[in-house]
Amino acid sequence: MGDTVVEVPKKRGRGRKALKEKIPSTNEANIIAGKVSESSTTPISPSSKQDSKKQQSFEKELLEMQEMLQQMRLEKEKTEELLKARDDALKQKDEELENRGREQEKLQVELKKLQKLKEFKPTMNLPVMKDNETKKDKKKKGVSEKKRPSPPYILWMKDQWNEIKKTNPEAEFKETSNMLGAKWKTVSAEEKKPYEEKYHTEKEAYLQVIAKEKRESEAMRLFDEEQKHRTAMELLEQYMQFKQEAEKETKKNKKEKDPLKPKHPMSAYFLFTNDRRAALVAENKNFLEVPKITAEEWKSMTEKQRRPYEEMAKKNKEKYALEMEAYKQKKDEEAAHIMKEEEEHLKLQKQEALQMLKKKEKTDNIIKKTKQNRQKKKQNKEDKNSDPNRPKRPPSSFIVFCKEARKTLQDERPGLNTSTLNALVSLKWKELSEEERQVWNGQAADAMEAYKKEMEEYNKSLSAIANQETE
Questions:
Q1: What pTM does this model have?
Q2: Domain ranges in the chain?
Q3: Which of 198, 257, 323, 414 has CB 3.0 to 4.6 Å from 262, enough for a Cys bridge?
Q4: How far apart are CA 364 and CA 343, in angstroms?
């Protein structure tokens, strides 16, 4: 034999950048391991290479087929699950329909009971409100018939009012009251004492009257509650008796049949039993034996024997059908007539409701107009009576901050809406720290101190004017 040439697989040199190695499958790894072992032990011939390639392709096809089978199994399981879920849903729907049918039957029974209970008419009435209900309402709200005693300032003001009016006849109500308020501050404790003593004596008498009235109202309230409780208990007893009687009647007459409705015709077998019953009873047959005998005789009868009964039953059925058509037609006409009456009644109700609504709208508009006129008159009076020399109350720290913040925001964003501006200002105020807020609080406090000083000077000037005029 000649020298055999062994083909050794050349090892490829690695480059700078190594490519990612493909992870082989289990079958491929086994094949590669087999190849390596064969190459290391025996020389590789061209025929063996072809066989190995065929084996590899066959194994690939097998793997693909296995994967396909796996997918088909999964799809089959999914379809089975879907079908099962569909069957469960259909079963649930059927059960729900059955339950609904049962519930509807129960509701019909309960509705019949309620219709019967509508006829409940008690033999007694609830206590009606008397003529003096306005007085009772006042007492309930806490308003007493006796007037509340006036405080010492008002008692003093009543005495001093005429004196100031003599000196200032042209002065209005607000001006005179301001003058009196300023003067009251300068009044000594000795001058105030008689008015305070009078107020205390009147207050004690007023409190005694109120305590008496409260006790009387509490007693009357308890009496009314007990009376209502008694009436309610009597009504409940009457209702319970009526309910028991109604339930007994419903048990006796579960289905109230229409007397005008035509009766259902008897079948051929029942016509035959009616004919035979008299003869069997004459033979002293028991009522339990009669149906058994008639049933056996009916079974053994021929068609000719049965024919007259069947023809009679057929005629009765045709007659029943005609009567039922006439009955249904009559019922439909009655229902249509009732519907017409209900529609006319509804139209009348709607008309009355619209008229009521128009009246209400008119009254609402009148009330609105009167309120607006009153507000306008009030504003005009306040504008006339307002003193221009009186110092104005300073704004709070938040309002001072708002003024400056609004100016800066309007400069930064000239096209902003008022609502967005207010929102941004409030956000900035919330974001301020305690130290930053103290600055604005300090400004507001300084302004308030200045306002108090101005008010003291203003009150002094008013009291001086009042004293000059009295002198």
A1: 0.28
A2: 59-118, 152-253, 268-381, 397-469
A3: 323
A4: 31
